[in-house]
Amino acid sequence: MLTRKQHELLLYIHRHLSEQGVSPSFDEMKDALNLKSKSGIHRLITGLEERGFIRRLPHRARALEVTRLPEDIERAGAPAPVSGTGNRFAPTVIQGDFSAALAGTTVPSECESTQLPLYGRIAAGTPIEALRDHDNFVDVPVSILGKGEHYALEVDGDSMIEAGIFEGDTVVIERTDTADNGAIVVALVDREEATLKRIRRKGGAIALEPANKTYETRIFPPERVKIQGRLVGLIRKY
Predict the structure, then answer these.
(1) Which residue(s) pair with 169 in the sheet?
(2) Would you call 197 a catalytic residue per the annotation?
(3) Which residues contact 182 (CB under 8 A, 6 or more apart)?
């Protein structure tokens, strides 16, 4: 079953394909659904793709293909989707007025996962500059998120293995500039290097502690360290 926004986006993509012969851009989809950011569109497209309603055509810009319609729309008389073949793209076409079909449709308003921007790889051994790539997103269970803004980083290094954080893991970070003593944070050192460490405040200094005995704790004056976020979750692929 589709959420209301997934339903709206699927129909909008169909209409755009019928009228223009190409998929709508992310900006066009965002504006059509009155969303504030493109991250919501990424989440909706991923949900439609996972449920088998659309697929992304590789090596083509703005290339989405509708593979099937919701049952209520099909019962209303819309034609079945037509797939592209070879190098030729055959857009799907929806005809008719779907207001009647939508009127009796009940869809859930909540989903089990959401998408967060994946800003890049962060060293858990030697600090590296945090990279931000606003085109990459990662699916995250909503149950691990609290209030506020969140983002994700991929771990590169082994200095936090005793805290259960391994190279290749994806860490979920709550954006904040404060954290309790002993929390695992993203710390920006000298405004150019970011690292994932446990923070300790000792007198007038800040210690960034690894969770690996082969690494040393680094101590800085407070003005050299800025907290960019606090660890709230971890995702691991096997």
Answers:
(1) none
(2) yes
(3) 198, 199, 200
